[in-house]
Amino acid sequence: MKSTRKGLRADELHKDNYERVACSECDETLKKDDDDDEVYAVRTCPECGQQWKELP
Ligand SMILES: [Zn+2]
To answer: Own/partner pairs for 29-32, CB < 8 Å, 24+ apart?
Structure first.
């Protein structure tokens, strides 16, 4: 799984007008799943299901 930072750099992700991370392909704001066992949160696109990890 790529990090959101890497996704933003690769233009797979972008920030919307409210500074929320969104999937560039689908133009959908990513959903956030906090996994208590991991230091990162998993961000999922509700449209295509691609996932990125968001590091703190
Ligand atoms: Zn997508």
So the answer is: 30/4
Q: For residue range 14-55, what is the model confidence (pLDDT) as tens digits? A: 999 999 999 999 999 999 998 788 899 999 999 999 999 999
- What does the pLDDT read at residue 56? 86
Domain region containing 21: 2-54
| Overall domain count for the chain | 1
Centre of ligand 1 to C-alpha 22, Å, is: 8
Give the distance (Å) from ligand 1 centre to CA of residue 2.
14
**How far apart, in Å, do the first and last CA atoms of the chain sit?**
15
Q: Which residues line ion ligand 1, judged by CB < 5 Å? A: 23, 25-26, 45, 47-48
Q: What is the pTM of this model?
A: 0.88
